[in-house]
What we know:
Elements (H helix, E strand, L loop, with lengths): L10 E7 L3 H10 L7 E4 L38 H7 L3 H7 L6 H14 L3 E2 L4 E6 L3 E5 L3 E9 L3 E3 L13 E3 L14 E5 L3 H11 L9 E5 L20 H8 L3 H10 L2 H4 L3 H17 L6 E4 L2 E8 L5 E7 L6 E6 L1 E4 L3 E3 L14 E2 L2 E2 L16 E4 L4 H4 L9 H13 L39
Parallel strand pairs: 1-2, 1-6, 2-3, 6-19, 8-15, 9-10, 9-15, 10-11
Antiparallel strand pairs: 4-5, 5-6, 7-16, 12-13, 13-14, 17-18
Helix pairs in contact: 1-11, 5-9
Amino acid sequence: MTIRAGDPHQHFACVGVGIGPANLSLASLLAGRPEITNVFFERRNRFSWHDGQLFPGTSLQVSMLKDLVSLADPTSGYSFVAYLHDQGRLYHYLHAKFEAVPREEFRNYFEWACRRNANLRFDEGVESIDFDGEFVVRTSRRTVTADNVVIGVGGEPWVPPSTRPHLGESQFHVNQFLERPRDLGGRRVAVVGGGQSGAEAVLELISRPAGERPRRTMWVSRRLNYFPIDDSSFTNDYFTPAFSDHFSRLDPAERANLNTVNVLTSDGVSRRTLKAIYQRIYVCRFIQGEVDAVALYPARNVVRVTPARTGGWELAMVHRVAGDAVEHIEADVVIWATGMRPARLDFLGPIAGRLAREGTEYRINEHFEVLWDGPPGRRVFIQNAARQQRGLADGALSLLAWRSQRIADRMRGVYTDRQVSSFIEWSAKASSFVENVPCVENVPEADVPEL
């Protein structure tokens, strides 16, 4: 069934809220399943994917096969390869020999998938979801009902609460970088955040022509150094269905610890970007003689930002290694590269009290289905909002297609996971006996016997 803008009340097997990569993946898989009638709503008037920070020359940190559909259905007409073929440039892409997919290209691919799908409705936000034997979804234009609702509204920019009253032209989140005035020549700019977004903002600033470049670019990070992303082969197993399922069965405290110690598997900086920054600093300092053009401040917590007496902003920073040492720097512009947090789900208000919680998240099962007191066959699914329960991969592109397939399977009443299990035995398998071997707990590694 294809929804038309003028249609009155309609019933669907699936109503999606939000059209970011997560729900776009599901919508693309459902495009080949006409038995699951569906419609997806998005409050924005067009597709957007980090548009405010799509710096020229940036690339994906994942394989092009981790697109909307390929890892669930490689024959789908919504794959990245299908996009290149449809645009008549598949050979050109191969000949370009990109080390990684240009991020702008992947964004254009997402937009292409939107244009192909008649069941996506932009400029129509969901205002409330209630339940009366079936889900009642009220949008800014109509009311529809559904057997299943899939929430995929993504994240929203996060900055420290004390900073929010000061946001504007001289303080803003990095996702608004390209929307802000570019006249930063001769000014002092502080970028706060040591992840990929912060690194890309720093590189863009220090790579500008001399007349447009800030007088001083300061990069502040809580991390002890500017660490690269760990994308080695065994580390990438964290971004597989097998590990996601294993992770979900762990104790909450163990899950939280794994997310903390493995954060660089998803939130580190690409080696290519770090190398480019280092080389650019070298050129500024040793070739162009601009010894004060770039300042690096790792291991600092920004604890306060106040108006400076001389204009601009004064940042107070606590050094994480040097105890209580407090430093102060001044900047004319502060760019917060402090990440995203799951967006508010106020539209679930009418049924929120019936949905189970786990910490700050809605509690989900192995099908990404929220546990609630409703009848069988009436389900609320959550995408990209369960990092505490499903691990670091939940917000990444890596498991996009697999997660969508699992949700689609649940609605269809089938199970189609056919991937070979991981090389790694993630879960402990209890034996029926205990071998007579020495305990090696807390023994220095060099002294551990080979068992």
